Amino acid sequence: MSPAVSPRxxxxxxxxxxxxxxxxxxxxxxxxxxxxVALFTREIFFKAANKxxxxxxxxxxLQISLHELVERRGLLQETLNHWHGVxxxxxxxxxxxxxxxxxxxxxxxxxxxxxxxxxxxxxxxDLVLGTLALWANFSLDSLRxxxxxxxxxxxxxxxxxxxxxxxxxLYYAAAFYTDITKAEADDVRCEMTEI
Length: 195
Hints:
Shape: rod-shaped
Largest sheet: 3 strands, parallel
Mean pLDDT: 76
Helix content: 55-70%
Low-confidence stretches: none
Number of helices: 8
Radius of gyration: 36 Å
Strand order of the largest sheet: 1-2-3
Structural class: mainly alpha
C-alpha cells in the first residue's frame, strides 16, 4: 500500500493542528468522534471537493485551448503544405518534358478513374488539361460504363479536351450482363449516340 498523502501534499491548506489530527486518524483504526468527523468534513472534504471542481474547470479550459491550438496547427500545416509548391523543384521542369512524362504515365487512361493522371500541382493540371493528345487516348470498360454514373461525364470531358486530335481508345466489351436491365442498356446507347 502506498504511503498516505497529506492534505498539504494534495494542495489543501489546513491549520497545522487539523492536519496533524487528520494524519493521526488516517494512520489508525480508532473511531472518530462526532466533532472530528464534522471538522474533517468541513475542513478537508468540502475543500477537496471545491479543489476538484476547480481542477475540472482548469482541465476543461485547457482542453478547449488545446483543441483550438490543434485546429490552428492543422490549418497552418495545410497552408504550409500548399506554400511548399512555390519553392518546389518540380516547377523548374520544362513543360515539354512534363508533357512527355504525362503522355507515358497517363497513356490509355480509364475514363471511369478521374484520378489516373497526376493533378498534384496547378501548373501540372493546367498543362495536362491543355495537352490535347493526352485526352485523345483512353480506355473504356463496357460493364463499368453501364453501371457508373461518372463515365459519360468523363467521356464527354475527354472528347472535349481532345479537340481535333485523332482518337485512340480501347473498348472492353463484356460478354454478358447480369445486373443491367435492357432499359438501362438502351438508355446508355442513347447517351452514347448523343456524344
